Amino acid sequence: MYLYIYIAMNKEAKVKPAKTCFGHIGGKLGILLMAAFEEKGWIAKQTPADKHFYITEKGEKEFAKLGIDLSQIKPEVL
Same domain for 35 and 12? Predict the structure, then answer.
């Protein structure tokens, strides 16, 4: 099930969708965010073959600057 949240780029342009899937950011916005976080070194994989990312020390600092409370994420073995 997809829910649609719309972000207006400006008053004259058509809106761009920020899709969610099962309560998480999905769609193109989710892909772009993940790629940017990886490029900036905020998230990484232990090996390229890994399925999951982890939040790096740099990511912890940068997400905190954005006001994102990472204490809500429980540590787990990847």
Answer: yes
